[in-house]
Amino acid sequence: MPEQDGPEKGDEVNRERTEALREQKAAMRLGGGEARLKAQQDRGKLSVWERIEYLFDEGTFVEVGGFVELRSEHFGLGKKKAPGDGVVTGFGRVNGELVYMAAQDFTVLGGSLGEMHGKKVATIMDMAIRNGAPMITLNDSGGARIQEGIGSLCGYGEIFYRNTQASGVIPQISVIMGPCAGGAVYSPGITDFVAMVKGTSNMFITGPDVIKTVTGEEVSKEDLGGPEIHMAKSGVATHIGEDDESTLNWVAKLLSYIPPNNQESVPVVPPVARTTGLPFSLQDFVPSNANKSYDIHAVIDAVVDPHSFLELQEAYASNVVIGFSRIDGISTGIIANNPKHLAGCLDVNASDKAARFVRFCDAFNIPLLTLVDVPGFLPGVDQEYSGIIRHGAKLLYAYSEATVPKLTVVLRKAYGGAYICMCSKHLGADMVVAWPGAEIAVMGPKGAVNVIFRKEIAASDDQEQAAKDKENEYIETFANPRMAASLGYVDDVIEPDQTGHFVRQYLWSLSDKHVERPIRKHGNIPL
Ligand code: HXC
C-alpha cells in the first residue's frame, strides 16, 4: 500500500516541471525570436502561430511533434536553434470539422526544409490520410535546407509521395504565404488547390538569379512567379487573397463545400431561399443572336442558391468558368462556357482547367452541373502546336470517367466536338436539357453551308441569295433542340426561367446514384 493515495499537497518538483514545460513551450512559440517575428510583421505577414490561430476554431488547434529538433550539424547548423525545425504541425477544427496542418515558420532558418522538418510534415500527412480529414499546408520557406543535402531532398520526396497517395482520398490545400522555390513547388503542384497571397508570395522552380545566369533573361520575382502570373498565365493558382487573413478566410470557405474524404457524402447545408425574384429574366438575358456575347456568371447566379457561387481560377482561361456552388443546399460543381471571353470556346487551358475540376468533384462525390454555350474548339496553329488534341481529350476523359450525378443544360450553341465534350449524353450525362434556342449541330450555319453547298451556291445566278436560303434551311433543321430531343440526346426542352427549378428536381432524383466501373488499376488520362 502506498503511504498516501490522494494528491500530495504542494509537490514542488512536479510544479517546477510544469512551470518549466510552460516556459519551454512559450519559448518554442517564439520561433526564430522577436527580431525575426518583427521582420515578418513588417512585410505584412502574420507569424506562423497567428496564422494557425486565425484559421482554426478558437482553442481547437493541437500541436503534434512540437519538440522535434534539428538533427544535422553540418555547416554550423549544430550551433543554431531551430524550434520545431521550422514547421508547426498539428490538427484542429475549421468550421467545426477536423483538419490537419503543416505550417512553415520562416523565422526559423528561413522555413527551410531539413530532414526532421520533412519527417514532421510526412507524419502529419499520414495522420490526415489515416483519419480521413483535409490536409492544409501553409508554405513560407526558402526551400530545401542547403546545409542538410540529401536529408532535405529526402524530406521533399516523402512529401510528394504522400501528396500523391492522398490525392483523391482527402482534399489537399496549399497556401503560399511567402517564398516557395525550387522543388518545393511540387507539393503545391500536386495538391488540389493553391491559394497565394498578394504581395508576399511567389513560386518558381528556378529563381531570377539562376535564370539570368542560364538564359540571360532578366525578370523580377513578382513577374516570374507572383500570384498574378500563376493566376493568369501558368494556371497554378486557384485563388489570390489580398492578405494572410483574407486568404485563410477563403480556405475556410472552400472547406465548407467539400467533404473531408472520398468516403463521405457531399456537404449539404440548409438551403437559402431567394428572398427576391431574379433581377432579370434568363429568357431575355441570353441573346438569341448566337454571335452576341453575355456574361455566364449572371446565369450561374440565377440558377444556384443565392450568393453561393465560389469561383476558382477566376482569371485563368476565363472562357470556361468553374467553381463550387450550392443547389438546394447541396454542394455542386459548376462548369460553364463563358461567351464573354473567346466566345466561350474550348482551348488548351480551358480544357485543362475544366478537366482537373471535374476530376476533383468526381473523386469527392460532388455532383456536376454543366452549362453549355460553346462554338467549338479554338482554331489556330498555336492551339494545334500546343496540343489541343491532348488537352481537349482530358476533358472528354474526365467527364466520361466521372460517376457522380452529371446534369447538363444547353443554353445556346453546342457545336461539334465541343458539344460532345461539354458533358453530353454520349459521355454519360444523367440528364441533358436544352433551352428552346439551343443549336446542337456539327458546326455553325455559315461554315456548314460553305462546306456542303459550296458547289450548288457557286452554280446559282444569285449566289448571295442562294447562300442565305441554304443557311436558313440549315438553321431551320439544326438551330433548335428538336432533332437532339427527338433522338433522346436531350431529355427535355425547358423554359430558361425554369432552369433553377428543374436542376433542383434532377439533382434530388440523382442523390442516390451509384455506378460500378470494370476493375482496373487506373486509366491512362492523356497528360
Ligand atoms: C538554408 C536558408 C534557406 C535554405 C533561406 N535560408 N533559405 N537556409 N537553406 N534554402 C536562411 C537564410 O540563410 C537566412 O538565415 C534566413 O533563412 C532568412 O533568409 P534571408 O535570405 O535573410 O531572407 P530573405 O531576404 O527574405 O530571402 C528569402 C529567400 C532567400 C528569397 C527565400 O533566403 C533565398 O533565396 N533562399 C534560397 C532559396 C533557394 O535557392 N532554395 C533552394 C531551392 S532548391 P540567417 O541565419 O542568415 O538569417 C530546392 C530543391 C528542392 O528547394 C528539391 C526538392 C525536390
From TrEMBL:
Domain CoA carboxyltransferase N-terminal: 14-270
Pfam families named among the record's database cross-references: Carboxyl_trans
CoA carboxyltransferase C-terminal domain span: 278-513
CC terms in the record's Gene Ontology section: acetyl-CoA carboxylase complex
Classification via PROSITE patterns: COA_CT_CTER, COA_CT_NTER
GO biological processes: carbon fixation
Any GO molecular function: acetyl-CoA carboxylase activity
Source superkingdom: Bacteria
PANTHER family given in the database record: PROPIONYL-COA CARBOXYLASE BETA CHAIN, PROPIONYL-COA CARBOXYLASE BETA CHAIN, MITOCHONDRIAL
Family named by the database record: Belongs to the AccD/PCCB family.
Name of this protein: Propionyl-CoA carboxylase beta chain
Organism listed in the record: Oceanipulchritudo coccoides
Higher taxonomy: Bacteria, Pseudomonadati, Verrucomicrobiota, Opitutia, Puniceicoccales
